[in-house]
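Subject: mismatched residue count in predicted assembly?

I count 756 residues in my input, but I want to confirm that the predicted structure covers every chain. Input:
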Amino acid sequence: MSENQELNLVVLLGSLRKQSFHAAVAKSLQSVAPANTNITLLGSVGDIPHYNADVQADGFPAPVLEMAGAIKSADGVIVVTPEYNYSVPGVLKNALDWLSRLPDTPFAGKPVSLISGSPGPIAGARAQYHLRQIMVFLDALVFTKPEVMIGGINTKVDTEAGSITDEQTKAFINGHLTAFGSFVRRVSL
Amino acid sequence: MSENQELNLVVLLGSLRKQSFHAAVAKSLQSVAPANTNITLLGSVGDIPHYNADVQADGFPAPVLEMAGAIKSADGVIVVTPEYNYSVPGVLKNALDWLSRLPDTPFAGKPVSLISGSPGPIAGARAQYHLRQIMVFLDALVFTKPEVMIGGINTKVDTEAGSITDEQTKAFINGHLTAFGSFVRRVSL
Amino acid sequence: MSENQELNLVVLLGSLRKQSFHAAVAKSLQSVAPANTNITLLGSVGDIPHYNADVQADGFPAPVLEMAGAIKSADGVIVVTPEYNYSVPGVLKNALDWLSRLPDTPFAGKPVSLISGSPGPIAGARAQYHLRQIMVFLDALVFTKPEVMIGGINTKVDTEAGSITDEQTKAFINGHLTAFGSFVRRVSL
Amino acid sequence: MSENQELNLVVLLGSLRKQSFHAAVAKSLQSVAPANTNITLLGSVGDIPHYNADVQADGFPAPVLEMAGAIKSADGVIVVTPEYNYSVPGVLKNALDWLSRLPDTPFAGKPVSLISGSPGPIAGARAQYHLRQIMVFLDALVFTKPEVMIGGINTKVDTEAGSITDEQTKAFINGHLTAFGSFVRRVSL
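Triage response: the counts match. Full output below for your records.
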């Protein structure tokens, strides 16, 4: 890919509540992205049933197939997620469990960026390293640096408007997405 | 607790399919347990809805409260789980996410044993270390050694009968439960 | 152990430089500890040679034997360490590698507390979870909560005096050591 | 890079003893590598002193500078390492700690492959995921699949000859190196 080629990125959101801090970040990514970058939200992980191999035997649920198709068509995936209990939210992991069972798994070779946050200072770091280990199995190409971990996230977003209000955070995410865009263009065939 | 005091342990199962290898292990634990040990299965993690703070605001779902009550009354918890994508199954993590939100969290100070397995040789090891990190947040007392990781689990259980067929595995789990029992008696107030 | 029994704790320090922030924390622990708690620094991990099984075959180095003896005699171990490259410092891990090879490994069943810090906000969290995994092999009983992760450590210690200058940090570590003391008394035979 | 361009890879070995199983694997990599692949061993991590910022202030030790130069000139790095105490050997981590302090860190953007093994079945998996987390800080591009974890390594190598004796292991590593070579050519600028 050439350095200015348009990129289509999709966002996988790890939380479900309406006033989620992370939903606000996810919705605002397009507005803080660099040029030539289109960012679209994937469907909700809440629409995907509990993973059960007996259910899978009857066919993959429609929301799983839809999400898989959107990931496949995209140039890269941005995971935006809170940390629950020092790890990945169960609802997000459950979606990944379904996606991983597809014969033609959508994450294979796909560039992935991770964004987490928390009201406290550790900012979801623990969830990110668990996600990185999960992504090894999925054979994804997880971007390294700069990592985005938003401490004090509750003071930096407007959950009603679905936007980031902290200018430093906006600039940092713009820098992250710019570097991730270069990575995507570098590693894509 | 004195060394022969009766123990009541509960089992948290991480998978949902009917012919689950891990369900077979879970069901057989009572039969391979040492004396003075009562082992009961908790309700299915499949009965617990996706964690959503908006749902929580309307009240904890009944299966969460029931599971929490059973864990509280027990002397210890045995988690029996497969590994999905190098980590904890989403459905299991989702149950833990709900349990952790209770004002009086049932895992605090509770002795916990981990049992995993897989058809391959790594035997769920990766899921166990992620679970251990999760259990730090839950403030549980996770037992260390001997660790139970059942490689080639598909050849060692009878999923119809719900039993372990491999004698060495039975003996090893008996040893694990005996050591875990001593640990429970040692650390319980 | 009764609740007021005197405890003898030893400190394992993970860094070597003279003006180390973590050395300042380690040296100050006695002064912030609760009553009936004696805290002594172990020898330096810098005195222990690179682990090499060929060297071991000729006999364990004296500083390893000395450190092992001191850990065995103690009621618990406090590890105070920086994070290097998102993990445990090599010099600290090297000391643990030697200690683990002893026929009568000193960490087995030993209560362990972890204290980390960093100038940034993540505060050594990543090193702590790696240490916890290592401690599973060593069969140690690692204390859970409250965890001590000192963000902005460079502004909270006096490296010349070897002391903590931040009152909130002193109070937090006092609370940690008090809770750890209760844990040690609870789990010790 | 074109698909057949010659690759120069260097090997970082994590153990020191002369009859090391992993040394045998490291020495044999050239003989099992695909065409157009030159594989050279880096200097021993045993020649690198304990990391100490006070020592660094006086200048980086020669073996660190030499290793860094060799990594920089290479197209990729293969880490071959045992697992000690469920993590990375201290001696290997210590070498990485030094390399990471260089102003122009040699791992940044560098493709890295991981090879581990153990006499038991878990085969060093735990060390690999800790290494992957470390490599995030180092900003390296760690190859994903197929992962090489050699169970029963003591029965699959000749430590005197420095060779792999098991044909399946040879073929598997050949496949790994072939896929890693494609990855290196894909991501290198």
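Chain A has six helices and eight strands. Marking this ticket as 'not a bug'.
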